[in-house]
Each structure stands twice: as C-alpha cells, then as structure tokens.
Specification:
This protein is 14% helix and 44% strand. The chain has 66 residues and is mainly β. A hairpin with a 5-residue loop joins strand 3 (40-42) and strand 4.
C-alpha cells in the first residue's frame, strides 16, 4: 500500500467507509462497511472483506446525517 494511503486508511480504522474497486471482469464494484485494517472491511452481514489497495478506484468515509 502506498505510504500516504496507508496512513490515511489507518486514521479511518473503525469508521464506516465506501470503497470502489476495479473489478477483474471490467467495471467496478463497491464495498461498504467498517474499516478494520488498511486492507480489510467488515460489511453489514458481518463478513470480513479483504481488498487490495491496487484495485481502489476511489473511497470516502461515510458520515451519518444528523
């Protein structure tokens, strides 16, 4: 993982994020959940999803509206 991105993701551990990944078949797929490490996310089904930083197209923290 690129050093700058690793630091930014480390700061988001425990927060809800959405990450758009390049799909191997073409196109994109989105994963949403709580970041558990710079390369793992737990989704709403309590499944742990591993991803590669090389596949990330974009990402953002999901902030709840008040």
């Amino acid at each position: 993982m690129a050093h700058g991105l690793e630091d930014r993701f480390a700061a988001l551990i425990g927060k809800r994020v959405t990450i758009r990944l390049h799909d191997p078949e073409g196109g994109f797929r989105d994963i949403v959940g709580f970041l558990e490490s710079p390369v793992t996310l737990r989704n709403r089904h309590n499944e742990l999803i591993n991803f590669s930083d090389e596949k990330i197209a974009l990402w953002k923290e999901v902030v709840e509206k008040k």
